[in-house]
Amino acid sequence: MNNTNMSVELLNEYRRVAYYYYKEGLTQEVIAKRMKMSRQRVNRIVSACIELGIVKISIEGLDKCNLELETKLEQKYNLREVRVVDNISDEKMTQELGIAAGNYLKSIIRPNDIIGVTRGRTTAAMVDYWIPAASYPKDITVTQLIGSGKEEDSNMGADRIVYRLAEKMEAKESILYAPVILHSESLRESFINDPYYTNAYEIVKSSTIAVVGIGTAHSQWKHMVPLYDLKDEDQARWAAEVAGEVCTHFFDKEGNEVVPPFANRIIAITLEDYRKIPVRIGVAGGMDKVEAIRATLKGGYINVLITDLQIAELLK
Question: Which InterPro entries match (predicted)?
Answer without folding.
Answer: NagB/RpiA_transferase-like, RNA_pol_sigma_r3/r4-like, SorC_transcr_regulators, Sugar-bd_dom_put, WH-like_DNA-bd_sf
